[in-house]
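Repro:
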Amino acid sequence: MSRQGVRQGSSYGMMLRAAAALCFSLMYALMKWAATMEPVSAGEMVFYRSIFGLPVVLFWILNSGGGLAAISTRRPMVHVWRCALGVSGILLIFQGLRLLPLADATTIGFTAPIFATLLSILVLKEKVGRHRWTAVILGFVGVLVLVRPGAEGAPPLGGLLFALGGAFVAASVTVTLRQLGKTEKATAIVFWFFIACALVGGGLALIDGHSHSWLVLAVLAAGGLAGGLAQLLMTTSLQHAPVSLLAPLDYLQMVGAVVLGWLLLNDAPTGATLIGAALIAGSGLYTAWRERVLHREITSPSPSSTV
């Protein structure tokens, strides 16, 4: 392919990734909006996200041309572990979303790369230099600014703990995917995860779910469709551009969360949220830049790409 063709392909991949980030923002905003109109549990959010996103995923798989081989696996137990982690992570994230402002919940989610760095040391025995440690410290300072421990008007502690727990589990999924992705197709990884979410979310919805108006059901369904479309766009973007070029675009989710929170929920971000978000984004962008310089694997900063 010519150099111009490579540039055009990369530009197309970046457009897809940007669209994916905004669709993920829309998914979270719609789920949050539904929960402000009527009680919606985290289990219900997982169920609607998976059951209405699954048709989009199936469309992608059927058009991949791989047939049943696209969802076959040689490592079923690793898929079980990945799904268990992923379902746990998304439940924590949605519970945090229920309790926190949209912008705060989204920003906390982007601490996943910080936890991924720490887990890579403990699990993968990777060596981390001063640059990545600097990024980790910067990210944790951003968290402290956002959390404002003891300050009046600080976000609720319960919501913060759920959101941080979701980010930590998302980082754990990232470490698992590094191993799983060496032998398994992306179509299989995504398909079985959506199936697991539908089963677990459906079971939880039967236990603590609620009846909903048609408006709330429509909003939840739209959120699920947006999540499925985001997954499709994100995965397709990787066919046109490297992760090192695409990962920074995930931070558009923060921008989307601020704008949609303002428009749909009348929820203006605080100064602490904006400063904390800038520090956390700076941490992730610095890490991505450093990994690109060293020609090493870059982890997407968005937890939405793993859970």
